[in-house]
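In this supplementary section we document a worked example of the pipeline. Step one takes a protein sequence of length 214 as its only input; no multiple sequence alignment statistics are reported here. Step two produces a three-dimensional model, which step three serialises into structure tokens for compact storage. The input and output of this example are shown verbatim.
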Amino acid sequence: MRSPPETRSVRRGLSGSEPHGIVPSVTAPRRRATYADLLEVPEHLVAEIIDGELVTSPRPASPHALAASAIGSALFDRFNGPPGNADRPGGWWILFEPELHLGEDVLVPDHAGWRRERMPSLPDVVGFALAPDWVCEVISPSTARIDRGRKLRVYAREQVAHLWLVDPLARTIEVYRLEGGHWVVAGTYEGAGMLRLEPFAAAELDVSRWWREP
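The serialised model returned by step three reads:
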């Protein structure tokens, strides 16, 4: 007895004489960004590599630029240099927008600082492989999600001991320290005034100069 046409069709397909059906497409793995990719980014953008992804951010607006400039000025004047006196405690290298090469990640915080006992002399390099002891991120609406998420995880992994998140629009300062591999809030501050902020509590800082005038 001849098989019904439907059965013959199925049998021919299983024999290999006809296609077996639709093969699911395979997505190629995403290529991890390289330092060469970073160098191709236009200079008007800040470029970083986080978790293998090239991340670019626009240059900051004036509130961000003012806060970053004021923070750098206050800390550089008092802390950048050999150990000193009560007015200028020293003991740090303080740098503006250093390029940090932390494993496969390349980050550019607004400021970073190294204690001089860990880095006695400043190397002549483009990127620093030695993780800093302190970083400061001046956050903006376009960068807040990455600053608070992916970058904080990298800093914790690399055992950065202290972190500041400064929001010039909200006029807030969040101070964190690393304990047991996790960030712990050491203090939160709002508005103007004279403050002692770890790890630079040896000197008072006038944070009213960090914000735009009303």
